[in-house]
Write a structure and sequence with these properties.
Elements: H1 2-17, H2 19-28, H3 33-39, H4 42-60, H5 63-72, H6 76-88, H7 91-107, H8 112-121, H9 123-126, H10 128-131, H11 133-144, H12 155-172, H13 181-190, H14 194-220, H15 240-255, H16 260-276, H17 286-303, H18 307-316, H19 319-329, H20 335-343, H21 350-362, H22 374-381, H23 392-411
């Protein structure tokens, strides 16, 4: 089963990189458009192959073992990302954030749309250290979508901005010990608190975030245009008390991030409140969030079968090699899973601990599966790309330069 699990994981990776090809096949063969379109959805890939894994396991190891394996995996993170995406993307939260950032942009010299793009690529990812990375990704993606990911922007710059966003979100959550999934996996075991994270990782991450955001904003500035005015129906501003209540819901979900029964209960109350005050709402992104949750749950199921080959690699590398090994391995496996495997190694030195986490977070923007919030960004931004799909190779190229910046900041 371990061998079969590794083979299916490899197939899922190849499927992720070739997802855009299925979208092209959907247009070429309209008779089977539905099937090809489904297989071309990046968010569906790992859930689909996780289902195949469970079915194969039922035949190879028996139905009871397959059921037991599926039920013993931890699905807290997929559930949390689903909930926090819906809450963070609600209209009152987004309007509040946009008001604050628009005020800053107006006070800053230069064109406000350029400043807004820079804030969305730098300050918002850094807030992930407070509100968690998935929430920061959701807010940043929805804020940047009408500004950057639209027709006047060249396709190569869209991938550049996407790469910067993914890398900055991955490293932007390292100012605290609870917001970034790869840090959370080791913080308790290695006794890393928020003061340690800010001193060892946070200031370096902030430096890399600002450099990445500044470079790509300068490249995009000629193509940035002011967002068109809203329709009259949407002109009425959301009252501050409604924004405050939504922010309170978001804070409650973040504080209860490790207690799925409780944050799901808060989410149900949130849905009720959103329905009661529907005049201040836009449609909630339930479908997009469900697809992202499905993707992450599939990654959990498939990733649970990879420990047998990943952990020996991690445990045998020296600190410097471990940094570059983690940087590369993160591209083909979730960085939180990678650091979790490192936390299981007995006697790992403090230097090796730092190198493992630094490499894992620095490489968190290279692929869709490298960091838990990335599928959320893909789901919310792909409509702004050609064929309404994001190329895995385009993302890899777009994230290469900001990844080098992050790696240099952490390594030196």
């Amino acid at each position: 089963m371990e061998t079969i699990g590794a083979v299916l994981f490899a197939i899922a990776l190849l499927h992720t990189f070739s997802a855009k090809s299925f979208e092209k096949l959907a247009h070429r063969y309209p008779r089977h458009h539905g099937l090809f379109h489904l297989l071309g959805e990046v968010e569906v890939v790992f859930g689909f192959w996780a289902f195949v894994l469970v079915v194969v396991m039922a035949f190879v190891a028996g139905p009871q073992n397959a059921i037991a394996y599926a039920e013993t995996q931890q699905y807290t993170e997929p559930l949390f990302v689903f909930v926090v995406m819906v809450v963070a993307a609600s209209r009152p939260v987004l309007e509040f954030v946009q008001r604050v950032l628009a005020t800053i942009a107006r006070l800053a010299p230069g064109r406000s749309e350029v400043m807004l793009a820079w804030l969305g690529l730098s300050v918002v990812p850094l807030t992930g250290s407070l509100i968690t990375e998935p929430a920061a990704m959701t807010i940043a993606a929805l804020m940047l979508a009408p500004l950057v990911f639209r027709d006047p922007m060249p396709e190569w710059l869209k991938y550049g901005a996407l790469g910067v966003l993914f890398v900055n979100v991955s490293i932007g959550g390292t100012l605290t010990s609870y917001a970034a999934p790869p840090v959370l996996m080791v913080a308790g075991t290695w006794q890393w608190d928020s003061a340690f994270m800010a001193a060892q990782f946070g200031w370096k991450a902030a430096l890399a975030v600002f450099v990445n955001a500044t470079v790509v904003t300068l490249l995009m500035r000629r193509h940035l245009v002011a967002e068109p005015p809203r329709a009259a129906a949407d002109a009425a501003a959301v009252p501050l008390f409604v924004c405050a209540i939504h922010l309170a819901f978001l804070a409650a979900v973040v504080l209860l991030a490790h207690h799925p029964v409780l944050f799901l209960g808060v989410f149900l109350f949130f849905l009720g409140y959103a329905q009661a005050y529907q005049r201040f709402q836009s449609p909630l992104i339930v479908k997009e969030a469900l697809l992202v949750g499905f993707f992450l749950a599939g990654l959990v199921v498939l990733g649970g079968m990879q420990q047998w080959w990943l952990q020996p690699i991690v445990s045998q590398l020296q600190p410097v090699a471990l940094f570059f090994g983690a940087l590369g391995l993160t591209a083909i496996t979730d960085n939180a899973a990678l650091t979790y495997l490192g936390s299981l190694i007995d006697g790992i030195t403090p230097q090796a601990q730092y190198m493992l986490v630094a490499g894992a977070v620095a490489g968190g923007g290279l692929t869709v599966i490298a960091n838990a919030p990335n599928p959320a960004g893909v789901s919310l931004l792909r409509a702004g790309f050609r064929d309404q799909s994001i190329s895995a190779f385009g993302l890899l190229l777009g994230a290469a330069a900001p990844t080098v910046t992050a790696a240099l900041a952490f390594f030196f």
